[in-house]
Amino acid sequence: MSLIHTPGPEDDGTADSGVPVAAWLVVALMVLLGAAWWMTRDAPVRPEDPPVRASGSGESERTEADAPSGAGTGAPAVPVRPTPARRGRGRADDAAEAAPAARPAPRTVLKVTSDVPGAFVFIDRRFAGITPLETDEVDPGDRVVNVSAEGYDGASARVRVEDGATTEVRLLLKEVRLDAAVDVVHKHRLGSCEGRLTANPQHLRYTPTDGNDAFVITLATIETFSVDYLGKTLTLKMRDGKTWNFTTRAPNADPLFVFHREVERARERLREMR
Length: 274
Prior knowledge:
Elements: H1 21-40, E1 53-54, E2 60-61, H2 91-98, E3 109-114, E4 120-123, E5 126-130, E6 133-135, E7 141-148, E8 155-161, E9 166-171, E10 180-187, E11 192-199, E12 203-208, E13 215-218, E14 222-228, E15 233-238, E16 243-247, H3 254-273
Parallel strand pairs: 3-9
Antiparallel strand pairs: 1-2, 3-6, 4-5, 4-7, 7-8, 10-11, 10-16, 11-12, 12-13, 14-15, 15-16
């Protein structure tokens, strides 16, 4: 008998098992896929055990508060999510927003204007700026304001600066100002009388201490107005020819000279404004 078996025509390799090879391959593939799924599946999340508190008998026990939600009822435990912290501003910020904003303290302001722009301004003899001027660097109270410009007589005023308010003052440099006076002796042809000469931008007035020699004339009607310093005589002549001569009891003619200078300056300014 031969040791090598040669299959015959009826022997095709499936006679012993009776199952096709392809079927075995399908089964093996399914087994492999099932094993791979089992190995890679997510393990179930196990809830943490509640804390254990020791009882008086030495045995550990859980309180009802420690028991997971739904214990003893058959319902599944529901994990409790922490409440997210509130974002935004806190109570202090809300209170600050609700509170009204504090109003700034009122300013103490002094405004100085003049009819000559760029005039120099002095407050209590200290230079403060030029007109128009608005400053809050001034203390409340009574203040002396002086304004001056080249070619004009200076002007001054005493003002009260109000605390926490705006104080305004306007000084005029183009305006003709004249407020002069001098005590004189009116010389007559026979005798004399004493009185007082006063002058403003409109009139020159003589008021005697006694008698009826008073008169008032306008500055525009003066033809001659002169002073003789050595002779201590002030001469006033109108256009119609009437003349007055005055002297002074002062030791020199200084009072007459000062009065004459102020009146002549005002007359010159009035002529320029015509």
